[in-house]
Amino acid sequence: MDRESQLARDARVLKLWQTLDTRKEGHLDLEGLRQGLKRIDHPLKDADHVLQDILEAIDTSKDGLIQFEEFKEFINAADKELWQIFHSVDLDSNGKIDKAELRQALDKAGIDAHGDRLEEFFEFMDKNRDGVVSYEEWRDFLMFMPNSEASIHTIYSYYLSTVNVNPEGDALLSNEINLQGLGYFLAGGLAGTVSRTVTAPFDRIKVYLIAQTDVPKVVKVLGTAVKGEAAAATKAAARPIEECIRALWRAGGIRSFFAGNGLNIVKVLPESAIKFGSFETTKRALAKLEGVEDVRDISSTSRFLAGGVGGVASQFSIYPIDTVKFRLQCELVEGGLRGNHLLANIVRNMWKSGGVSAFYRGLPLGLIGVFPYSAIDLGTFELLKRAYTKHKAKRLGCPEQEVQAGPFVVLGIGATSGSVGASVVYPLNLLRTRLQAQGTAAHPQTYTGLKDCFTKTYHIEGVRGLFKGLSPNLLKVVPSVSISYLVYEWSKNLMGLSG
Fold first, then answer.
1. What contacts 223, CB < 8 A, 6 or more positions away?
2. Measured between alpha carbons, how far is 332 from 248 in angstroms, rounded to an integer?
3. Full-model pTM
4. Which residues make Cβ contacts (< 8 Å) with residue 53, sequence separation at least 6?
5. DSSP character string of 60-87
6. Which pLDDT value is given to residue 177?
7. How confident is the prediction for the chain on average, in pLDDT?
8. 212 pLDDT tier (thresholds 50, 70, 90)
9. C-alpha distances in angstroms, 490 versus 184, 187, 307, 485?
10. Which burial class, exposed, middle or buried, applies to 387 when counting CB atoms under 10 A from its CB (0-12, 13-18, 19+)?
């Protein structure tokens, strides 16, 4: 397929500019761009939410106006990228894209666009209805796409933004956009539900150990270690976990290891939705502050900051459920209340003891702790995943957007980000948990506040007391975070969601 000469391209760009410049002012502002697109009946003529992005992408001088040289540079750059993508989709190199080739390209990019959706997408570009999309049709539709890194993903997103605008310029939420929004929510919820359920026994053991404040066993472990009896020290250190498992089994059998998991599942849907939603929203806000067009190109600092904001937002929203869950686990004893009766009794007693504030005990500490954890967890995961996809894309010689991390890679990255974050903030989480569980059967000790909790913990148990339950916590966190990310990525791919 022969491309047009530079002379022909320059003539075409000049003619397009003269057509768009309806007021013959030699430049285009937002209204001028809108009027010009209406003259050529471009699909974006009513898309105000996209026109501003287009103007900002073309206006390199940032004076609010598009000059001809800026327009020419933008069109030429877009033409170069669109040609490369067109060539990669045109598998038989005949200069035309048919439906089979378009479907294969979308499938490779992990986009679910079959049946009617594929037909609509194809027909939207096939203006002369000859059953194929020529490069001219492809270029004329996509030349105003305001993304600096074009790919099948961005092209399909651009298509969705153009077909859901009414004549008044209001964006319409199509079924597909609604499904995508719901899809991210379901993907996050499913990921959280599966990971929390699989690792619930480890969480149960961790909470049980945190609630125990006796120091003799710790002294025994330290004594044997000081004497150089490594085997005896290891055995002594493992004994509390063994005794914990026996006690939990006596309290209620296998169901005892899943106490509070029902509340975990109830809270995980909104928690995951708010966490990932806030994370993505904050990333985009920070991208604008940095002047970055592609959110993937934000700085590491912004990435970690967005992760912290996502964690704080989700923690605040589900904190009362978390508090009830911890108390439910600590009140479950042999011969005591069970199920809904125990849950109702806990809520009633908490309300009597402190009203609404009783459900938010330890909240400041929880927010302080969750910010660095989420920042490290989400930030590190995205950082490592981006580094992997960039390296693999460079090695394969393909756009980064078309590279996906495999399941074992996702598991490894998730395990790394989750374990580092959990270890760093564990003392804060321990103090928060004790404040939440104070006055229960498993943790009768009470505190006047954070300082009192820290003082008593350190005085009785020493530094080791601040890390009590860390081992089972890591046994829970590593698989939990890994499984969560794996299920989330798998769910997104299954539903054809990008990102």
1. none
2. 9
3. 0.51
4. 146
5. TT-SS-EEHHHHHHHHHHHHHHHHHHHH
6. 40
7. 77
8. low
9. 11, 8, 21, 8
10. exposed
With H, G, I as helix, E, B as strand and everything else as coil, classify residue 59: coil
In three-state secondary structure terms, 165 is: strand
Do 5 and 56 form a contact (C-beta atoms < 8 A)? no
* Cα gap 20→26, rounded to integer Å: 10
pLDDT exceeds cutoff 50 at 168 = no
The structure tokens listed for 156 are: 């399909």
Q: What is d(CA 158, CA 150) in angstroms, rounded to the nearest whole number?
A: 10
The mean pLDDT of 357-381, rounded to a whole number, is 82
Rounded-to-integer distance, Cα 250 and Cα 147, Å: 61
The C-alpha atoms of residue 385 and residue 21 are separated, in whole angstroms, by 44
**Are the CB atoms for 225 and 233 separated by under 8 Å?**
yes
Q: Which residues contact 329 (CB under 8 A, 6 or more apart)?
A: 204, 207, 208, 259, 260, 437, 442
- Would you mind telling me the total number of residues written for the chain in this entry? 499
| Residue pLDDT, tens place only, 284-297 | 788 878 877 667 77
Residue 495 has pLDDT above 80, yes or no: no
- The tokens for 238 are 């493992």
In the Cβ-directed half-sphere of 429, how many Cα atoms lie within 13 Å? 24
